Every structure is written in C-alpha cells, then in structure tokens.
Amino acid sequence: MRVLVVEDERVLADAIATGLRRDALAVDVAYDGAGALERAGVNDYDVIVLDRDLPKVHGDQVCRELVARRCPARIIMLTAAGELDDKVEGLSIGADDYLAKPFAFAELVARVRALGRRAAAPLPPVLERAGVTLDPARREVLRDGRPVELTRKEFAVLEVLLSAGGAVVSSEQLLEKAWDEHIDPFTNVVRVTMMTLRKKLGDPPVIETVPGVGYRL
C-alpha cells in the first residue's frame, strides 16, 4: 500500500511516516499543501493522511482539488480540530475519514489500512491464495499453516501479489506500491526481494515469473 503523509510539523510527519513504514507500508511525506498536490499528481497513492492546517495551500483546498481531479486515493484528515462541526465540514469537502489530534497511533494504522482496502476493489481483511495466508493487522504470514518470518519489504511485496488476485504484477507496480519515491527505478531490488521471498515461502514454489511482464501468485 502506498501512503502520502501531509503534515507541516516535521517531527510529527516523520514520526508518522516511520511508524507506517514499520507496518510494511510505502510512505512519502509532504510538509505543505503545494507539495502534497505535486506528489499526488505524480504518484499513485492508496491513502493520503492530510493535515488540515497547512502552509502554502490549506488542507481543505488540497482535499477539494484532489476530489476535483478524481484522485483515486482515500483521504483521512488528521487535525487538532475535533469538534463535530469540524468533522462534518471535513467530510463534506471530500475526506473519507477524520481523526483528531492527539490520536493513538494504532488507530491511525487501522484506519489507513481500512481506507486502503476501499481504494480499489474491496479486499478481505485476511488475504489467502495457494496456501499462503497474510494478515495485515497482525502482520502474520502462514504457508500451509506454517509461520513465515518476513522483512517489511518482503511482507509488502507479498501483500501486493496477494491483493492482485492471481493477476500479473509488474516490477514497476511493485516499486510503486511497496517502495517510496526515493527508490531508484533502475534498481534490482524487486528481483532480489522476490528471490528471498520465494526462499522463505518454500516449496512447492507459488510465485511465478511471467517473462517480460512481471510476477503472479
């Protein structure tokens, strides 16, 4: 899942990004509304965590513009304004969810993942295919009932493959969904991660390479 965190308090923004990355999400950060609109115009995000009181372009205007662009990302507003009227106004301009500061980080993660499941076709909370089971909430993976320990990137790549429901996923799509904007597009990190992931999942192999196209589970 690819997430954009938009927050002008840099310490808080970086803390949120770090926490979401620990949950195997790919995260980019913008510190003002103009940067948010620029990144959303270039990258394909599943969820945008959007602070309301932003410099350069106010969070409300960012939300309105994203909705006008028909941006497919789900938007969760993160703001110190927690009164009912503020929540109603935020939802009325196009936000999908609203979380007031201060907040429990576990709740933010749960809301981001819930919105991510709604960003495209609805997905079940637990993904399962070919004897592989992945539980994003518990961050657990099983292969035929056997626990499998994965790194965050291996977990993210497996989640993208399982979410595709048997469709082929290209290396470019994996880079887009499992890494952030700082990744080198010419890197071989996808191939290396796929090699270690296959080894950990064991035999018989469940991840197929489709030559010249990508990967399929």
UniProtKB/TrEMBL annotation:
The record's keywords, sorted A to Z, are: DNA-binding, Phosphoprotein
Where's DNA bound on this chain?
A: 124-217
**Residue list for modification 4-aspartylphosphate:** 51
Lineage top rank: taxon: Bacteria
Name the PROSITE patterns on file.
OMPR_PHOB (PS51755), RESPONSE_REGULATORY (PS50110)
Which Gene Ontology molecular function entries are recorded, alphabetically? phosphorelay response regulator activity; transcription cis-regulatory region binding
Record's GO cellular component terms? cytosol; protein-DNA complex
Q: Does the keyword Phosphoprotein apply?
A: yes
In this chain the OmpR/PhoB-type domain maps to 124-217
One Gene Ontology BP term is: regulation of DNA-templated transcription
A Pfam family that the UniProt record links to this protein:
Response_reg
The record places domain Response regulatory at 2-116
Q: Return the protein name.
A: Transcriptional regulatory protein CusR
Q: Organism, per UniProt?
A: Actinomadura macrotermitis
Q: What is the lineage of its organism?
A: Bacteria, Bacillati, Actinomycetota, Actinomycetes, Streptosporangiales
List the gene name.
Answer: cusR_2
